[in-house]
Amino acid sequence: MLRINPKHCLIILFLTSVLAAQPATAQENHQTRYRSGDRPATQTLLSANVRHGGFGSPIYGVTSINGTVVMLRGTRGAWIINLSPRHAIHLGLAWYRTRPEADAVSWPHEDINRPEIRTEYGGFEVEYVNRSYSMVHVGTQMLVGSGSVRYEERNIDLDKTRDNYFVMQPGVNLFLNVTSWFRISGGLYYRHVTNARLDGTGNADLSGLSGILGFRFGRF
């Protein structure tokens, strides 16, 4: 026959009462605050204070292709997510192209004149900006995408006259707030190229440092 210890019953009854009272107290406090207009804030993944914006920017710079210093030109556009006054994320697209062309290196075809080579690349960019409200502030970014390299002379007598490659380009930027809608950016990037297979150039020849100047117009 099952024997019940009165002491154990009292302990179980006490604990049950305590646990049952807490939700009731919380509900009462919630109702009191709700009636008084002091409704507790709803917890969400993203704060309701997140502000959004965007910008477009022409890009000008210099870089090295096949050991030759060439100009870079391009465009950028991004969606701005201001997570807080101190932290912002930019998600967008960018495209870069070189001018003028660079000479091919280690040219293996003696019966064909050494051609000039041009390249362009672009892709998705993500950028982190710290304290964008300050007149001068900094940010870091990463581009992941693809590019193409080809001979300037399209009628060159070779089976392969162009190739595509994968590119990653990390960088750091320094910003100057000129107005509330216009900012100047100066950056230093490193372009890392892989899978480039074209006579007269290669991964190491297409990789290199770039100095970039940008003019950003938008809602920040």
Folded structure, characterized:
The chain has 220 residues and is α+β, with helices and mostly antiparallel strands. The protein contains two helices and nine strands, in the order H-E-E-E-E-E-E-E-E-H-E. The protein has helices spanning 6-36, 203-206; strands spanning 51-65, 68-82, 87-99, 102-103, 116-130, 136-151, 162-177, 182-194, 208-219. A hairpin with a 2-residue loop joins strand 1 and strand 2. The longest helix has 31 residues, at 6-36. It is elongated, with a radius of gyration of 30 Å.
Descriptive keywords:
single chain; 220 residues; alpha+beta; 53% strand; elongated
Any chance you could write out the topology, listing elements then pairs?
Layout: H1 6-36, E1 51-65, E2 68-82, E3 87-99, E4 102-103, E5 116-130, E6 136-151, E7 162-177, E8 182-194, H2 203-206, E9 208-219
Antiparallel strand pairs: 1-2, 1-9, 2-3, 3-5, 4-5, 5-6, 6-7, 7-8, 8-9
